[in-house]
Amino acid sequence: MDRLSTGCSSVDKLLKGGFPTRQINFVYGEASTGKTVLSMQCAVEAAGRNFKVFYVDSHGSFSPHRLENLPVSREVAQRIVVFRPEDFQDQIRITETLENLLTKNPALLVIDSVTGLYRAGLGKPKEVFAYNRELNRELAYLADIARRYKLGTLLTGEVHSQPGFGEWAVEPVATRTLRHWSQLMVRLRPTARREVRECVLEKMDGREVSGPRTFFRISETGIENA
């Protein structure tokens, strides 16, 4: 199975070489834990390998200035196509037309964040049911085209807190749906050191895992070994 490097050797080692293609990979965590920086760095690494990159910026975090800080040439940057959906339905429309843009050449799809616009649109109970159904359909479609094409799929997600056993548990928004469809799942967490984050592997090859983790540093030029 082909894997896409994150550009950070410690994270690549944790993921046994990087994010696998032909499946859904999911990264979640609190704000400012490095989800967007990791996503952009993966996009640059993929584009450097002549992958066509489709970057759906549902969170509004992608910026040309941040891209310029990464080690990327103009030629490589031109292989990254950025979409900015206006709402959750627009996000679905973009992903559902993606298959028309795929060829036999390898590609990477990044959605940062897959649940940002979904969460913003939630309201009445009927809307929650409809949005959950649409999110499940979107992920099923992405899992299907990832298998049929040489497509790497990297999704990021937000978190919410809820009461657990004696403490507040932090889980992804729409956790049941995302856990079902994601073959690989990673959580990013803050640490006591301001620029250092913890990367915890929670699922690999479709199986839940517990324990594997590593650390990385967020710098002006991306993520690097801590």
Explained architecture:
With 226 residues, the chain is an alpha/beta fold. The chain is 34% helix and 31% strand. The protein contains eight helices and 14 strands. Strands 3, 4, 5, 6, 7, 10, 11, 12, 13 and 14 form a ten-stranded mixed sheet that branches. A two-stranded antiparallel ribbon has the order 1-2. A two-stranded antiparallel ribbon has the order 8-9. Strand 13 and strand 14 (222-225) form a beta hairpin. The longest helix is centred in the middle third of the chain and has 24 residues, at 125-148. The chain is globular. The model has no long low-confidence stretch (mean pLDDT 87).
Task: Using brief descriptors, characterize the structure shown.
226 residues, alpha/beta, globular
Short description:
By secondary structure, this protein is of the alpha/beta class.
Number of helices: 8
> How do the helices and strands follow one another from N- to C-terminus?
EHEEHEHHEHEHHEEEHEEEEE
Sheet of most strands: 10 strands, mixed
Nearest-angstrom radius of gyration? 17 Å
Break the fold down into its secondary structure elements and pairings:
Blueprint: E1 3-4, H1 9-14, E2 19-20, E3 23-29, H2 35-48, E4 52-56, H3 64-69, H4 74-77, E5 80-83, H5 88-96, E6 107-111, H6 116-121, H7 125-148, E7 151-157, E8 159-163, E9 168-172, H8 175-181, E10 184-190, E11 196-204, E12 207-208, E13 213-219, E14 222-225
